[in-house]
Amino acid sequence: MMAGFGNGTRRYPRSRGRTWSRTGPDRATLGIIGVICAVAGFFALGIVLGPVAAVCGWRAMGRSWAGSRSIPALVALVLGAIDTLLAIVWLAGTATPGNGLL
């Protein structure tokens, strides 16, 4: 006897209704990673860690300003943006004539 087309006798409730991939880190983890990268970026490699922190914060917020935002995600986004801006200003100030580079 056939169970039907596509309807097995066993149900898998965990696989129903899931439309996203669960291979990457969740939002809370991304927020914490972003905060760590932002704080570390103030001390070393700010030009690299600042954008990484901003991207992690943005992804942890769900790539949207609407809805509920977690505090670590928002902190990572803001500190990452500040870190990136400070690193760009520092690099621009280092490359100006008169600092011994030319």
Shape annotation: elongated
| Helix/strand order, N-terminal first | HHH
Category from helices, strands and their pairing: mainly alpha
Largest sheet: none
Helical residue percent?
A: 40-55%
* Weakly predicted, low-confidence segments: none
Distance between the termini: 85 Å
The percentage of residues in β strands lies in under 5%
How many beta-strand runs?
0
Tell me, rounded to a whole number, the average pLDDT: 78
> Count of DSSP helices?
3
Radius of gyration of CA atoms, rounded to a whole number? 22 Å
List its traits:
3 helices; mainly alpha
Protein architecture, described:
The protein is mostly helical. It is 53% helix and 0% strand. It has 3 helices and no strands. The chain has helices at residues 27-41, 46-60, 71-94. Helix 1 runs antiparallel to helix 2 (46-60), helix 1 runs parallel beside helix 3 (71-94) and helix 2 (46-60) runs antiparallel to helix 3. The radius of gyration is 22 Å and the shape is elongated.
